[in-house]
């Protein structure tokens, strides 16, 4: 692969042979030959590209012997005011230190008045070239790429820098020499770079010549990705970048930008007045997950206040999506469950593989409605002897455990509808030929449900090539837990019964317990992914979870529970993924997991993990992702005990400093590393980054990390 066609290497427009300024028509700046010396310290190696706006050379620093990219901008492209704006922003960009950004090392003006930049020289391929070659990316590839772009934007915005020119040619998939020979074209494991910060100010692309814009066919690229406010020429803030990012994400998924007119001006008018079609329509019928449609739609909102309000929120949602996509992809490789006399089980064990920062931010998403206490039922116990649906009990008319409901006819009718539905014994699903299943849910909202290739529709809902469904019950369904008994034992594959994390919950500690619900799901023998975050779970509830023979992923974040009860679960060693938060002692869990050969992902947040447990974790051969955030006993002294085969490691809130650089650098399989920003200076991160070139290193504050988790949990309530 040739050197990267990016901010540091590509021609500044599509015409690589242009020798005159596209604006002024004057001759371009001085040409250089190999071995020419520039500024007494840079030796020209070769020309990388030339365009109407400037040229880019590969150069070698004569003293440091490092290779860099030297970009010249033509004098005809600037004026005094533009140069002053550029200089201010270039100085700010020079201070940005992030693995997903290309570093600007030096800038200034040559004696002949020609502006220049010295940047990192990175080899790879632009997203524009990838899309030109492939047409479009898969959902999984897009999510993984834009997580890294989101990290870059979040960091830049927090430092007061707005990009203003996000487009496919400014997103780089960097590759090493090994990647080019062994893994050419792979975008999933590569480091992604966002480039060209602030150049648009210098080159005058914030202000447009109206005559140029109205000439048919002269769309130079940026108008395809401009926000409505940028097209109007009014002031912009960081949210303009999020709109542009939405345009690029749309194109990555469908193969074309969301809005294209006959001219640049026509395209800009569309950005102001026309809503883009859905991803499905733009791709001529390709099905996309509901959540990815929602993310892109929110990015492309015309109203600034309707968009994501920060790149952090966007990135948090994408990481949540990456979790869901990765687990779904892994679980889709499983064979269908089979029945034996002893019960339900999978015919083969499975290993769920970690994705980019899987579980680094969150696993399941909270309910849309405010959390309420789950209604209790009397004289109703799920049948533990067989898989038949037991009799349906009756909701008592007087019960102090039933939450007060608003005194409205609509609310009373909803409650009556759910009570009536709970009294029916007929299963929700009908078995049809050719592995098809039809779900006859009630004709009112019960929650969120979907399956691979079968997005949620009004009932009857048909699922072809049935492999189990995802179900997230709403608060009304949860108040009538007997409704779970209407699911067949093999209906549900992923179940999320987490509580919503609201302000009331945080202040009053008013988290409902899961013990009322869990006895009603033990017959669901094909559940593989279970989320019970922000709940209270007793030993009784843990025993119920232990009765799920095919459980592979369990999220118990911020739930109140006893570690000993969790350790006693009979299926604990079968888990591929476990996430717990704020336990006084994690030793019982780690001791119980020591025989596990399946555990891929372990999240022990604020669980008082210490060196002895870390030493035990090093003996977990299948562990590839470990989150130890907020464990103050994990210090530099324990870093030599961290498993060297990890792919993702989070140490936010741990006193791990640059003194551990040697031990961290030995983890050559790391792809994502999260460190506490209070302990690491930019130059120290750069040193570690040089030792781990294929690792995306994110430094963050503990508070910011927690906000990621909270915003991910509030996904559903955001729409």
Structural write-up:
This protein is an alpha/beta fold. It has a domain at about 410-719: Alpha-Beta Horseshoe (Leucine-rich repeat, LRR (right-handed beta-alpha superhelix)), CATH 3.80.10.10. It has an 11-stranded mixed beta sheet with strand order 14-16-17-18-19-20-21-22-23-24-25. A 6-stranded antiparallel beta sheet has the order 1-2-3-4-6-5. The chain has a 3-stranded antiparallel beta sheet with strand order 7-8-9.
So what's the overall shape? globular
Q: What structural class do helix, strand and pairing data support?
A: alpha/beta
Strand order of the largest sheet: 14-16-17-18-19-20-21-22-23-24-25
Which homologous superfamily in CATH is the superfamily of the domain at 410-718?
Ribonuclease Inhibitor
Main sheet makeup: 11 strands, mixed
| Overall average pLDDT | 75
> Cα-atom Rg, whole angstroms?
28 Å
As residue ranges, the low-confidence spans are 1-28, 177-185, 200-221, 327-408, 502-511, 703-719
- Distance N terminus to C terminus? 43 Å
- Binned, the helix content reads 25-40%
Residues in β-strands, percent: 15-25%
CATH topology of the domain at 410-718: Leucine-rich repeat, LRR (right-handed beta-alpha superhelix)
How many H/I helical runs? Answer: 22
The CATH architecture name of the domain at 410-718 reads Alpha-Beta Horseshoe
Number of DSSP strands?
Answer: 25
CATH class of the domain at 410-718: Alpha Beta
């Amino acid at each position: 692969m040739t050197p990267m066609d990016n901010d540091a290497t590509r021609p500044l427009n599509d015409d690589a042979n242009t020798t005159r300024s596209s604006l002024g028509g004057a001759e371009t700046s001085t040409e250089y030959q190999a071995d020419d010396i520039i500024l007494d310290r840079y030796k020209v190696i070769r020309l990388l590209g030339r365009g109407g706006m400037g040229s880019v050379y590969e150069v070698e620093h004569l003293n440091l012997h490092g290779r860099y990219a030297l970009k010249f901008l033509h004098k005809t492209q600037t004026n005094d005011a533009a140069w002053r704006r550029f200089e201010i922003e270039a100085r700010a960009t020079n201070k940005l230190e992030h693995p997903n950004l290309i570093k600007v090392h030096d800038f200034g003006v040559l004696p002949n008045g020609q502006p220049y930049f010295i940047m990192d020289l990175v080899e790879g391929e632009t997203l524009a070239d990838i899309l030109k070659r492939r047409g479009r990316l898969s959902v999984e590839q897009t999510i993984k790429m834009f997580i890294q772009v989101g990290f870059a934007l979040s960091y830049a915005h927090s430092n007061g820098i707005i990009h203003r020119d996000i487009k496919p040619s400014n997103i780089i998939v960097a590759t090493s020499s090994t990647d080019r020979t062994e893994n050419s074209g792979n975008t999933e494991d590569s480091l992604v770079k966002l480039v060209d910060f602030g150049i648009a100010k210098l080159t005058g692309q914030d202000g447009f010549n109206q005559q140029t814009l109205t000439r048919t066919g002269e769309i130079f690229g940026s108008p395809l990705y401009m926000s409505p406010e940028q097209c109007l020429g009014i002031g912009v803030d960081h949210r303009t970048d999020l709109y542009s990012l939405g345009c690029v994400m749309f194109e990555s998924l469908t193969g074309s930008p969301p809005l294209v007119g006959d001219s640049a001006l026509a395209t800009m008018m569309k950005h102001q007045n026309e809503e883009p079609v859905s991803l499905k329509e733009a791709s001529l019928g390709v099905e996309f997950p509901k959540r990815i449609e929602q993310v892109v739609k929110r990015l492309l909102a015309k109203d600034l206040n309707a968009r994501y309000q920060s790149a952090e929120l966007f990135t948090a949602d994408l990481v949540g999506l990456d979790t869901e996509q990765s687990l779904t992809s892994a679980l889709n490789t499983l064979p269908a469950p089979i029945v034996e006399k002893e019960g339900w089980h999978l015919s083969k064990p499975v290993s769920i593989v970690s994705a980019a920062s899987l579980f680094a931010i969150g696993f399941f998403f909270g309910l849309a409605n405010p959390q309420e206490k789950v209604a209790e039922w009397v004289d109703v116990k799920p049948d533990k002897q067989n898989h038949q649906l037991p009799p349906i009990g009756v909701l008592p008319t007087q019960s102090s455990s039933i939450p007060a409901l608003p005194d409205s006819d609509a609310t009373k009718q909803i409650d009556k509808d759910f009570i009536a539905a709970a009294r029916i014994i007929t299963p929700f699903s009908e078995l049809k030929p050719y592995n098809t299943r039809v779900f006859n849910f009630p004709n009112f909202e019960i929650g969120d449900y979907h399956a691979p290739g079968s997005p949620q529709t009004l009932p009857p809902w048909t699922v072809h090539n049935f492999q189990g469904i995802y179900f997230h019950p709403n608060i009304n369904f949860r108040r009538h837990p007997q409704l779970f008994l209407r699911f067949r034992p093999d209906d549900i594959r992923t179940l999320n019964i987490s509580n919503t994390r609201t302000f009331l919950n945080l202040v009053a500690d008013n988290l409902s317990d899961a013990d009322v619900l869990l006895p009603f799901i033990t017959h669901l023998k094909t559940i593989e992914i279970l989320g019970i975050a922000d709940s209270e779970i007793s030993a009784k509830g843990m025993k119920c979870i232990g009765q799920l023979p095919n459980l592979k992923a369990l999220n118990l974040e911020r739930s109140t529970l006893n570690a000993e009860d969790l350790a006693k679960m009979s299926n604990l060693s079968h888990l591929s993924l476990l996430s717990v938060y704020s336990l006084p002692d994690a030793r019982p869990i780690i001791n119980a997991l020591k025989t596990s050969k399946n555990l891929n992902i372990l999240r022990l947040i604020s669980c008082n993990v210490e060196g002895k447990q870390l030493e035990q974790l090093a003996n977990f051969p299948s562990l590839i992702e470990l989150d130890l955030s907020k464990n103050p006993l994990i210090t530099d002294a324990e870093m030599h005990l961290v498993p060297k085969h990890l792919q993702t490691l989070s140490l936010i809130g741990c006193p791990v400093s640059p003194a551990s650089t040697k031990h961290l650098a030995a983890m050559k399989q790391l792809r994502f590393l999260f460190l506490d920003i209070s302990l690491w200076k930019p130059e120290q991160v750069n040193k570690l980054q040089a030792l781990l070139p294929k690792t995306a290193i994110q430094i963050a504050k503990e508070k910011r990390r927690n906000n990621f988790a909270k915003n991910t949990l509030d996904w559903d309530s955001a729409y």
